[in-house]
């Protein structure tokens, strides 16, 4: 089993509070987050963009490995994930993650590529974690 960690600290309460998030690797180290970064345009991060980045990275890596397993050796994959945070009663829920993939892969039919991408979407660990609708829009380049 592989275990990774992240941590968060929040000082103050509610809208006036300020949080800091860090990751085990140190890539994020006391990165600022709070009400203004989550619901406004203040500089900093928020849980939804971190989930979006994790989902895009997980799916893209899963697809890369699946294509390599097919014997393919060259290509470029670029994924953007858009995570939606919607009002849910008194709180909020992440209701969807929309993946947009731009890809250029030689030596595979579009039909086979789309099938492998759909399997990668369903099989990536972050997709499995999310209790949300997940869509995939594929844009193939020649």
Write the layout of secondary structure elements.
Blueprint: E1 6-11, E2 18-23, E3 31-34, H1 35-39, H2 47-69, E4 75-88, E5 91-105, H3 110-123, H4 125-129, E6 133-140
Helix pairs in contact: 2-3
Structure description:
The chain has 142 residues and is α+β, with helices and mostly antiparallel strands. The chain has four helices and six strands, in the order βββααββααβ. Strands 1-2-3 form a three-stranded antiparallel sheet. Strands 4-5-6 form a three-stranded mixed sheet, with helices on one face. Strand 1 and strand 2 form a beta hairpin. The longest helix has 23 residues. The radius of gyration is 18 Å and the shape is elongated.
At the fold tier of CATH, the topology name of the largest domain is GMP Synthetase, Chain A, domain 3
CATH superfamily of the largest domain: K homology (KH) domain
Q: Given the structure, what is the number of helices?
A: 4
Strand order of the largest sheet: 1-2-3
Q: DSSP strand (E) fraction? A: 35-45%
User: Ends: how far apart?
Assistant: 39 Å
H-E string: EEEHHEEHHE
Q: Any low-confidence stretches, pLDDT <50, length ≥5? A: none
